[in-house]
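# step 3/5: fold
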Amino acid sequence: MKTLLNLIWLILSGFWLAILYFLAGVLLFITIIGIPFGIASWRIAGFTLWPFGRTAVPRRDAGAASCVGNVLWLVLAGWWLALGHLITGVALCLTIIGIPLGLANFKLIPISLAPLGHEIVPTDQPFGHR
């Protein structure tokens, strides 16, 4: 079932949202200071391509630097990426078949607002590998 949902997701919204994350990463890589944010953006792009069967969990070793970084991320890229998830999620929820896909979009909003200090793990490994 996860594979079917991921394939439908990829066609209806995942590919386009992943392109947004990829472009945000490219823009952030242009500056030296933005490289960690670009890496986070590309990590989320992979999560956005195939979200079913994976989840984001807080990292145990995340510190104050990730909190400060998340504030900068929110200003630089997070708010408009989260807006993309919100708009896509509402549009998908308008159809019955799109409801699980819309809910997946809503699941991605928190990680799009604050990606630093989180890792993407399979759902059968909910507490990470650390």
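# step 4/5: annotate
The mean pLDDT is 87.
# step 5/5: archive (pending)
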